[in-house]
Amino acid sequence: MRISIGSDHSGVELKSLLVRVLSGSHTVLDRGPSERASCDYPDYAIAVAKDVAAGDADFGILICRSGIGMSMAANRFQNVRAAICPTTDAAVVSRQHNGANVLCIGADVVSAEYAVEIAETFISTPVDGDARHVRRRWKLERSQRLSDCSGLMKSDPEVYAAIEAQVRQEDAEINLIASENTSSRACREAAGSVLMNKYAEGYPGKRWYSGCLPSDAAEELARNRACRLFGAEHANVQPHCGSSANMAVYFATLNPGDSIMALSLDQGGHLSHGSPVNFSGKIYRIIPYTVDRKTEMLDYDAIERQALETRPKILLTGASAYPRKIDFRRVREICDRAGCIMMVDMAHIAGLVAGGVHESPVPYADFVTTTTHKTLGGPRGGMVLCKEKWAKALDSAVFPGMQGGPLENIIAAKAVCFGEWMRPEKKEYARQIVANCAVLCKTVMDRGYRIVSGGTDNHLFLVDVKAGGMTGKDAAAALDAAGVIVNKNAIPFDTESPFRTSGIRVGTASVTTRGMKEPEMIKIGTWIADVLDNIADTAVQARVKHEAAELVAKFPVP
Ligand SMILES: *Cc1c(COP(=O)(O)O)cnc(C)c1O
C-alpha cells in the first residue's frame, strides 16, 4: 500500500515511529513536519488529503493532539473520508462501514504502541461490500450535490433555493428532453472554478492580458483533446453556445446577404440555421430545404438538385429534431458538385459521434459546429472544428470578431468533458443511448402512435400526437403532470402553430446517464402511452407519477 502521513508539532514523534514501522511493508510518503517547531495542522492535513484525493496514496494518516482538527481539514477534500479512531474497534468499523481512507489519531489520546496497532488494523481491514453499507456510503458522497453549494445557504439563500430546487427536480423527474443531459460532477467543478476570474482575450500564447498561463493551460487541453477526440485539424473552444458557434462560421466565411441552404426550423432545423426571427435569417439569404414529404427523411437527390439550382455559399446539415442518421459522405459529394462550403451542426449528435455510433462529419466537412451540453453531456457551451485552411478565419471571427473574453472556466469544463469521452466506457454509454432510444420508440409505436419517419437511428424520436387527436402542447403538459418531461415539437409539414404543434420530441441521453437500460425504457414507453391514451385523466397521471418516482429513486443522478 501507499500511505501518506503527516502531523502537526504535537505528533512528530508518533509520526516518526509510524513511518519506521509501516515502511517495513508499505510505501510511505512522509509529508512532514520533520521537527517539533510550532506549525499549522491544516498545511499537513491538506498535503495528505491531496495525496488521497488524487489517488497517489491508498491511505492517509494524520496526527495532532486530538485528531479533530486534522479530520476536519482532510474531510473538506472530495473522495477523502477521514475518521478519528481512538480504538482498534473504531478503526475496523470506520473501514468496514464508512470506507474511511484517512486515519486521524490523537497523540494525547492513545499510547504510541496502541497507535501502531490502530494503524495496522485500519490498513488491513477491507471495506464491507454489503448492500446497506454501499448505499450509505453512496449517500455520503452524493450529499455533495447540495453540500457543494452549501455556502450559499447563508450567503445567498434565495439563489441557494433555486439551485436546491433544480437538484430536487433532477432527482424526481424522468428527463426525456432530447437536447439535455446530466453533467458530471467533474465538469461542474471546473465550470465553477476560479478560472472564471480571468480575462484571457486572444488565444493561448497570444493574449491581450498578463497572467494568462493557467487559462492557456486549460484552453490548450480543451483544444488538443477536441482535436484528438474528433480527429479534427483545428478546434476553437471559445464560442459561448451553439448559436454563437454557428455565427462564428458564418462570420468566417460569408458577407451579409450571402446564401445559406439549411433545413428549416419547422422541419427539424435550428433557429440559428436561418430562422427569420434569428440573426442568421436577418443577415443572410436563407434557402430552406425540407425532408421528403413521404419518408420524412432527408432526400439527398432533392437536396442536390436544389443546391445545383441555387448555388448557396454554405450547405448546412445537422438538426435539432431529426431522428435519422445523416449521410455526410453524400453531403460532401453534393457540396463538391454545387461548389458549397460544407458545414455540419452536430450539436445534438456530438456524443454519438464521439462514441462512434454515428458516422463522423469531421473528415468530410469544412466546418463542424457543436454544443458541448447535449449528448456530449459537458458544460453549456459551443465549439467549432474546422480544416486547417479555415483556422485563421475562424479564430478571428470568434475573437475579436464577435466575442471578447472567453469563459475559461467553461473551457476547462469542456476539456474535462472531452477527457471523459476518451475513456472506453463512454463508447458503451453512446451505444446504450441509441439502444434505449430504439426500445423506447418501439414501445410507444407498438401502442399505436405514429412515429415521424417510422422510427429512429439516434438518441431522439418524434411522436405525431395529432393522429390521436391531441396537440403537442397538451401531450407535453399531461406528461409533465405525470413526471415525464418531454417537449412539444413541430413535425415536418406541421399544420398546427409552432406554439401548439402536432408532436412531442423524446430523447434518451439523460436517462442513459442515470444508468437506465432497456427494461426501464419499456416501462417509460408504457407510461407515455398510458398518459396519452387518457390525456385528460389526472388519475392516470398521478399513478404514473408515483411509479416514475419509484423508478428514478433507483437511478441516482450523478
Ligand atoms: C441546440 C442547438 C444549437 C445551439 O444551441 P445554444 O442553445 O445556442 O447553445 C445549435 N444547433 C443545433 C442543431 C442545436 O440543436
General description of the model:
The protein is of the alpha/beta class and 558 residues long. The protein has three domains: 2-139, 3-Layer(aba) Sandwich (Ribose 5-phosphate Isomerase B, Chain: A); 190-421, Aspartate Aminotransferase, domain 2; 425-552, Aspartate Aminotransferase, domain 1 (Alpha-Beta Complex). The chain is built from 23 helices and 20 strands. The chain has a seven-stranded mixed β-sheet with strand order 9-15-14-13-12-10-11, sandwiched between helices. A five-stranded parallel β-sheet has the order 2-1-3-5-4, with helices on both faces. The structure holds pyridoxal-5'-phosphate (PLP). Pyridoxal-5'-phosphate is lined by residues 179, 241-243, 270, 272, 318-320, 345, 347-348, 371, 382. The site of pyridoxal-5'-phosphate has 14 residues, from α12.
Broad structural category: alpha/beta
Classify the fold: give the CATH topology of the largest domain. Answer: Aspartate Aminotransferase, domain 2
How many helix segments?
23
Please give the number of β-strands.
20
Q: Indicate the low-confidence ranges by residue numbers.
A: none
Residues in β-strands, percent: 5-15%
| Biggest pleated-sheet summary | 7 strands, mixed
Q: Which descriptor suits the 3D outline?
A: globular
CATH class identity of the largest domain: Alpha Beta
Oligomer: single chain
The average pLDDT score comes to 97
Q: What strand order characterises the main sheet?
A: 9-15-14-13-12-10-11
Q: Indicate the radius of gyration in whole angstroms.
A: 28 Å
N-to-C terminal Cα separation, in Å?
29 Å
- Range of helix content: 40-55%
Under CATH, the homologous superfamily of the largest domain reads: Type I PLP-dependent aspartate aminotransferase-like (Major domain)
Give the second-level CATH assignment, the architecture of the largest domain: 3-Layer(aba) Sandwich
The set of bound ligands, ions and cofactors reads: pyridoxal-5'-phosphate
